[in-house]
Amino acid sequence: MRLFEQGEIIDRREALENIGWPAGWRRLTLGFMADRDVLDVIEREIADEVRIRFPGDAVQRVRLLQHGDHPMIEPGDLWVRLLLAGDPADHERILRAFQDAHEQAIEPFVGFLRETLAEIRIVEFMCGEEPIGREGHGPRFSRVVSTRLADVAEWEQGATTPVVAELGPAGLDTLDTLIRAGFAATRPQAIRWAVDRIRDRPAYQRLLDLQRETAALKDEF
Question: Which of 49, 40, 10 is nearest to 28 (CA)?
């Protein structure tokens, strides 16, 4: 894992243990998958920043999540989760009170994350502790931190149309395997890769022929 400072390559693990996000540091990029020890160092630094930007005891805990911690997190992506203090049963009031009290600090914090680490996609604020896993969502609100450059390029070129697909664990694991193998950079790209492979198969061409033949028969009636 490497980090650049003024053109010099510095060991990331050693560097992160000694930084406090000084202004002179360039934006970090961890790469495809990060070592948990490195993420723990970054998590502590983000927690220190949270204490500065959101003083008091409103934020109970800060988590830096990666692929495998939640089914919606894709390989190579990171999410920041702020756990707010209070009874989850009273989540609506707690979340609303936090937004009202810290409205001016939330967007600058999102900007800080955006400039700190390229892989951070989402920051979410939620009430109460939630087990880290595939069990779904609890009460929360979130902000988008960054978008993948590959996705932005495709959207700007009008090359893609958003499609909503609900997949179970097996489907997600299939897409993530294609990403880890280098066939795609994101889950949407992995789906397109699989669709392209189907389209290239002779059986698919036969389906197209049958469809045309069926349409021609209908026209004869």
Answer: 10
Here the tokens at position 78 are 């990171």
Q: Rounded to two decimals, what is the model's pTM?
A: 0.63
Shared-domain flag, residues 31 and 137: yes
**Where does residue 212 fall: left (phi above 0), alpha (psi -120 to 50 degrees), or beta otherwise?**
alpha
Q: Do 194 and 178 touch, CB atoms closer than 8 A? A: yes
Q: Are 190 and 111 in the same domain? A: no
Count of structural domains, the chain: 2
Q: What is the pLDDT of residues 146-159, one digit of tens each?
A: 876 556 556 556 66
Tens of pLDDT, residues 10-45: 344 444 445 444 343 334 455 545 678 888 889 999
CB-based contact 184:178 (threshold 8 Å): yes
- Per the structure, the complete domain to which residue 198 belongs is given by 156-220
